[in-house]
Design brief:
mainly alpha; flat; single chain; about 70 residues; about 55% helix
């Protein structure tokens, strides 16, 4: 799959190693590959759900920091 196809200028990279998680859902995927491995490195099929979880964590931390900054300063 990697390489340059007809009509393309930029070569494609090889797909990352992928492992199908059969049972346990997102919780099993996170325990096996971690949040970063699941969300950013596409190690299994739960990448989109892990990205949403990462977004919620980032937004919560940012909101807490900004809220505390408004109160203190």
């Amino acid at each position: 799959m990697a390489g340059v196809r007809e009509g393309e200028r930029i070569s494609r990279r090889d797909p990352p190693p992928y492992e199908e998680i059969e049972e346990g859902g997102l919780r099993a995927a996170l325990s096996k590959h971690g949040l970063i491995g699941t969300a950013l490195r596409d190690r299994n099929q739960y990448g989109p759900q892990a990205m949403i979880l990462l977004l919620v964590i980032t937004a919560t931390v940012t909101g807490t920091f900004l809220g505390l900054a408004m109160i203190l300063f």
